[in-house]
Amino acid sequence: MVNTGSGVVITATGPIDRLDRFVAAIVEEHPPLAEIASIQSKRLAIASTAAPSTFVILPSSDGGVNTAIPPDIALCDDCRRELLQPSNRRFRYPFTNCTNCGPRFTIVRHIPYDRPQTSMASFTLCASCASEYHDPADRRFHAQPNACPQCGPSLTLVGTEGDTLDSSDPISATATLLARGLIVAMRGLGGFHLVANALSAEAIALLRRRKQRPDKPLAIMARDLATARKYCLVDETAERLLCSPAHPIVLLERNPRHPLPEELSPDISEIGVMLPYTPLHLLLLYSEQCPEVLVMTSGNNSGAPICTANDDALRRLAPLADAFLLHNRDIVTRVDDSVAKVVAGRPLLLRRSRGYAPAPLYVDFTLPEILACGAGLKNTFALARGNAIFPSQHIGDLDNLDTYEFFQESIAHLRSLLELEPQAVACDLHPDYLSSRYAAELGLPLHRVQHHHAHAVAVMAEHRLPGPVLAAVFDGTGLGDDGSLWGGEVFVAELTSYRRLAHLSQLRLPGGDAAAVEPWRMALAALHRTYGAQGALLHLPAALRSLEPERIDTVIAMLEHDFNCPATSSCGRLFDAIAALLGVRTRMSYEGQAAMELEALAKRARPIDWRRDFLPNSPSWLSPFLESRDGKWEINCQQFVTMTIDALDKGEPPPQIAWKFHRQLTATLAHLLHILAEDTGITQIVLSGGCMQNSILLEGLLLALPTPEIQVFTGNRLPVNDGGVSIGQTIIGGLQHVSRHPHAGHQRPG
Fold first, then answer.
1. Taking burial as the number of CB atoms within 10 A of a residue's CB, which of 179, 310, 320, 745 is the most buried?
2. Same-domain status, 413 and 555
3. Is residue 549 exposed (0-12), middle (13-18) or buried (19+ Cβ within 10 Å)?
4. How far is CA 720 from the centre of its chain?
5. What is the pLDDT of residues 472-498, one digit of tens each?
């Protein structure tokens, strides 16, 4: 047996029937973390005298890399038992791991994945660890990060100046600092966390002030599953996610019987929860002084990539933290925590990073060696060749130099690991995204891919749908083929083309990008579109009357003269408009805030039997929210504005109005998709885009759409938000490059 860049090669001898059983056993009885992409076998003529009598693993061989890079895996149950067993030589050792758990992607420098190719190369195995490593019967056989207190990485607790704090037990000392309400920057698996007491409103407020993060939800880590259940509602699917080998952050509804501080996620009904996924996290939370729930947020300045190196963290995070818990194992690749949620009993991965990346996605066709550069927000990139696509970890919003440099270094690293030289590059249709500019500067054949088509194809690829499908893609904005900003789209989608069938009616974006962070602008635009200039002022709700009159007059004038007011069919901006009309949010401090708070408000008024409202009934009537215009269907945004203003005038409470908005939007889209399915004969529907992260919208559609004839798909293992766009770009651009068809990936006339 030998590990190569192309996979594992096994030479076995014996009777044919036993060899057949051996191959079958590899498939049926492989180790728990092993994933078999394919098995190829051929017979060799070997003299019986040359046949080995024992199992031998040869040194790994170099060569072309065509195998997967393993993601980082959470602490397994066996290592957990040893970690907490006083008689074990790894008792309380914070870097315990075995072949079934531990760091992978974050420490690997080159492939094959062997210890000399990782950041563990600087730690020489002691005799005991070496014996485990070389024993095929041992659980740590060829566990590349294998270590113990005598030969492995170690911890140090230091102050903000890098001075070592006097402590023989850095973990217990850290727990004491957290119990006192202080903030600790802790070096973990893929970067630093800023850690605080999640039960202390004062500690949370201190962290928010220092990090200049006034509202964005903070993720927490619970001591164990029982603690997570104490503070949040955990169903079976959420439990499987929390306890899976990836251990992602899972968005959970709060448990009203044991309220956590509101400051963790102001005005949001969900909170991100994860369980300890490294020995270090477990030991910290099991320390006597440690609070049972800790804030674990990314160790960075807002908007910048997470810190990975000790010296960089001491420099950048000193204003944010009171102490630093450091270790001396290098982090080769920074990786954020993954984020998931459960909707209608289905797991949805919202951020694919630690525990998942860069595991490949396999498709049923052949792609060239290609790089896809992704979107501008929630960026990921992807590399592909053959039938394998390798999505990157979460990169983030490409709106600052630090993140753009992280994007570039991550591309270079993954290309090096895979030994992949792209023949072509794909990017978003929008030329001003930094990802698009990077792609254009590579000097390779360039394939620009429409944003929402890429969303749809990513879902098609995950579920291996050859197409055509009906695709409903609802999000913030993406550049359309007509030069306007799209964001509420229904297509007939195929892998290399699409046809736009329907969309939300257009609103204006007064001030362009400013409207995406100031929902009051969208509210005025919606009122202006519905009632005109004078009518907008007459119907101004109470929530907008506190705005400076000069601002209102300026925006109305901009709308009247169509000055710096690009048109958009964005669903995200419609959510913003309704949120501002209801007084939920007029200015945002993070992307998606208004829509998330509007959803939380709607949940307060959602009846117990709300799911009955969405059961499919195939209505024969035509919804007043739908109209046909210029050969395409439109969902009429003005009707939602009228509904909202009329309800306010009648004195209906905002939670009830927010629920009615969600219910009506969901029912209208479901009605439209049923009409289009009947018109086109297409029975497979895909749902994607950032708005499909809204639990009410998505679950309502998953209830309303399926029939015996219609199947509905959404992103489960790939994000429906912009984190999945690079996968769609890879396929569309790759197939376009192979076909050399100049119009592949473009809208078909219709």
1. 745
2. no
3. exposed
4. 8
5. 999 999 999 999 999 999 999 999 999
